[in-house]
Amino acid sequence: MGVVELLGLAGSISLLSGWRLYLTVFVTGLAMRLQWINLPENLQMLDALANPWVLGISAIGALTEFFADKILWLDSIWDGIHTFIRPLGGALLALAIVDAGDPAWQVIVFLLGGGAAMASHSAKAGARAMINTSPEPVSNAVVSTGEDVATAGLLVLALANPVAALIIALLLLALCIFLIYKGYRLWRKIVSSGN
Nearest CA to 143 among 84, 77, 69, 90? Predict the structure, then answer.
């Protein structure tokens, strides 16, 4: 796997960890366990994801998140708790994928992976908090299901074609940054109108 493919895989998985960390770990580990993907020599650190214990715990986490994310306001509490977990998970997954020997490169990858996961998590959590203010209860479940489908589809794409996944990850990162910016502006507007 070349540098572009490694960056595509690391960027995609980090970004998706900000949405659905447990599902990302589970699908990646399951793909490795069932030998849907064969890891190159430099990615053997990810073998831990195929461990039955890791698969079991990530499956329980993914299932819990699936239901918690469909319940109005519980999803925001879940996102609040995972504000610390998802970016760290995204950073560690990126570090495991790139596995560079140079300590400076490891720090860079760790920070970028965590930053990508934090950006996608912040955009998701902010958007979901705004959706929770909607008077009808259906939009929350629809958006959550869309996130589930998008995460699974992008994971499959990232594993099959990391370059295409890198392009999509960069577009999604730009969208996340845009949503964070818009949310910040809306928040500032609300705060300034309250004074």
Answer: 69
| Per-residue three-class SS string for the chain | CCHHHHHHHHHHHHHHHHHHHHHHHHHHHHHHHCCCCCCCHHHHHHHHHHCHHHHHHHHHHHHHHHHHCCCCCHHHHHHHHCCCHHHHHHHHHHHHHHCCCCHHHHHHHHHHHHHHHHHHHHHHHHHHHHHCCCCCCHHHHHHHHHHHHHHHHHHHHHHHCHHHHHHHHHHHHHHHHHHHHHHHHHHHHHHHHHC
pLDDT of residue 56: 96
Burial 43-71 (b: 16+ CB within 10 A, else e): beebeebbeeebbeebbebbeebeebbbe
pTM of the model as a whole: 0.80
Using the predicted structure, report yes or no on whether residue 42 has a pLDDT greater than 70: no
pLDDT above 80 (res 70):
yes
Res. 55: pLDDT tops 90? yes
Residues 82, 72: Cα–Cα separation, whole Å: 16
pLDDT band for position 39 (cuts 50, 70, 90): low
Q: Specify whether the CB–CB gap between 39 and 47 falls below 8 A.
A: yes
What residue segments make up the domains of the chain, in order of their start? Answer: 3-194
